[in-house]
Amino acid sequence: MPVTHGVAGSSPVQTARFPLSRGFFIYLMDYFVELGYLGLFIVSFLTATLVPLSPEVMLGILIAKGFNLELCIVIACMGNWLGGVTTYYIGRIGDWKKIEKFFRIKKEKVYSFKEKIDRWGSVAAFFTWLPLGGDILALALGVFKVDAFKVSLWMLIGKSIRFFVVGVLIYYGIDLFTN
Question: Which of 12, 104, 112, 142 could, after both became Cys, cross-link 92 (CB 3.0–4.6 A)?
Answer without folding.
Answer: 142
